[in-house]
Design brief:
By secondary structure, this protein is mainly α. It has two domains: 92 residues, Orthogonal Bundle (Helix Hairpins); 100 residues. Helices cover 62% and strands 0% of the residues. The protein is built from seven helices and no strands. Helix 2 packs antiparallel against helix 3 and helix 5 runs antiparallel to helix 6. The structure holds zinc ion. Zinc ion (ZN) binds next to loops.
Length: 213
């Protein structure tokens, strides 16, 4: 992924990534989040390291440092600051990070897919819809059942997150694209399941709130 480029300012080849290693001028920032932070493309990420890099790069890219620089560097610093913020927001969050890696690897992660019920949840979804129907028709006896279902969904989310973490670690130990793409397939369906369960929880919350309103 490392792209070699000549420094726009001094023309040196092998200028380095963000700042030219010879004349120190700011280079056109890479849009790749991992590359931008100089981090390996892993799904598990050292949060402290990421945070440290974020703060030091924020300082290096601060607009005050560019007031007397060329227009080119001013422009690059704005671009780089914006990539820095987006990259940090995405990489610090395990779910967004995984979605980013999937998208970059050519997977589609649309909301569309999240409408299909994961087969292993069919029973829960059926039960939930029944209970919600009863609630809507004014049967409040169903409230404890809904609470219990909500609790179960949250527990499922905890399990899903633990499974995801295992798959992240597994992904990071693999050395070929083929092996990695098998794990990414699996991660994509776990993320789908996760999104689906989250939507179920929101649905329960929405119904319970609208009832209290
Ligand atoms: Zn240079």
């Amino acid at each position: 992924m490392e792209h070699e480029h000549n420094c726009w300012q001094c023309g040196s080849a092998d200028a380095g990534s963000l700042f030219c290693r010879y004349c120190n001028s700011l280079q056109a920032p890479t849009p790749d989040y991992y590359h931008f932070f100089g981090l390996p493309r892993t799904l598990s990420l050292d949060q402290t390291l990421l945070q440290d890099r974020f703060y030091s790069m924020s300082r290096l890219l601060h607009p005050d440092r560019y007031t007397r620089r060329s227009d080119q560097e001013k422009r690059y610093s704005l671009e780089a600051s914006s990539i820095l913020n987006d990259a940090y927001r995405v990489l610090r969050d395990p779910i967004r990070r995984a979605e980013y890696v999937l998208r970059e690897a050519g997977y589609e992660i649309g909301e569309q897919r999240s409408k299909d019920v994961p087969p292993e949840l069919l029973e829960e979804v059926f039960e939930l819809n029944m209970a919600l129907d009863e609630l809507r028709s004014g049967d409040t006896d169903v409230l404890p059942q809904l609470d219990e279902m909500r609790r179960r969904f949250l527990e499922m989310l905890g399990d899903v997150d633990a499974t995801l973490e295992q798959h992240f670690r597994r992904h990071d130990t693999l050395s070929t694209d083929e092996e990695r793409s098998q794990v990414l397939d699996r991660i994509r369906s776990i993320l789908h399941r996760r999104r689906y369960i989250r939507n179920l929880v929101s649905e329960v919350d929405r119904q319970l709130t609208s009832r209290n309103a």
